[in-house]
Structures are given as structure tokens and as C-alpha cells.
Amino acid sequence: GASDEARLAPIIKVKPEMASLNVASMNFGDRVFLNPPAMVERFARAMLEAGVKPEVECYDMGHIGIAVKLIRKGLLKPPFRFSLVLGVEGGIPPTLKNLLHMVEALPENCNWQVIGIGRYQFPLSTVAMILGGHVRVGMEDNIYLAKGILAKSNAELVVKAIRIAKELGREVATPSDARRMLGLRG
């Protein structure tokens, strides 16, 4: 894998408005996704100093607890953004019970989204919308529009998510709404 410096370079040089912060190591399929505690704190500090909003990616329950420690140390500032990733091999299984458990463990003053992998994308997204959370859909996580039907584009998956949101009575955020909710600077 890339060195810590190579992974951190875009944060320091480019200073994107938002970037993923992986807070723990885990087995990821047949690889190890290495994020030792000292490195995670270093990345969180660099993001804070660069004005980059962390999107805390949680692949398991313990990852939320690690993020809470970063909050207590002042390395993450509100509003906090959490991505609850369910269904990745080596991470938390994609069940309703697990999603509810993760949501209950989130700190106050946070905004969260679910990332359901594969066939769990839309069932988990629907539950997240019902619970007041947000969703991420796209071909990075799922290539099917429905069972046996390949999506032709990310746009098709987004249109489906919008339809579900509207059926549930949820407003769909505009880009300006999303920026405000996320506390982005631009």
C-alpha cells in the first residue's frame, strides 16, 4: 500500500473540502487495511489544520468508539460526518439490527449516511431514510438497479434513491443544502 506520506499528501497539498478518514485497521477481503492509532490521529490532526472536513468511515461498531475518542481529543469538530458502511467483507454484516446498533452509538451533533454494499444498498438506504439518515448510492458499492438488472450508470441508481426518498416523504437535499448540513466552508 501507499506510505502514510503518500496517503496524506492530497490533504496537505490539495486541501479538499472533505475527505474520508478511516479510523481503524481491518481485514478487507484478502488484504489488510492498515490504519494504526498514531497514524489515524496524525491524519485527523492534518485534516483539522488544513481545514478539511473528515468523513469518518465506520466499517464496524468499534470504529465509532475510536471516532468518539478523536472527538474528545479535539481532533474532530462538529458537525461530525459519519459513513456507516455495512456489507464489506471483514466489516459489520449488513443487517437491520447492526445498522440500528451503529446509529444508536453515534455521537450527538452528527450527520450520518449509510453505505450498503451490493444487494443491500437500497434496503439499507431505505431504512436510513426512515431513521433520518442520509444515503450514498453508486456503482462503487453496487452495480445492480434491481435483482438481475445491471445499472447503466450512477445516475440510474441516484434516480432510484430519489424515488424512494420521495415515496417516504423525504426532501432531497440540494447541493447548497448538503454543503450547509456538512459544515463545508465554500
Task: Please sum up the structure shown.
The protein contains 7 helices and 9 strands, in the order αβββαβαβαβαβββαα. The protein is an alpha/beta fold and 186 residues long. The longest helix is centred in the first third of the chain and has 14 residues.
Helix and strand topology:
Blueprint: H1 4-13, E1 18-22, E2 26-28, E3 31-33, H2 37-50, E4 53-58, H3 61-72, E5 80-86, H4 96-105, E6 110-116, H5 121-131, E7 134-135, E8 144-146, E9 149-150, H6 154-167, H7 175-182
Parallel strand pairs: 1-4, 4-5, 5-6, 6-7
Antiparallel strand pairs: 2-3, 8-9
Helix pairs in contact: 1-2
Observed structural traits:
42% helix; 186 residues; 5-stranded parallel sheet; TIM Barrel; two-stranded antiparallel sheet
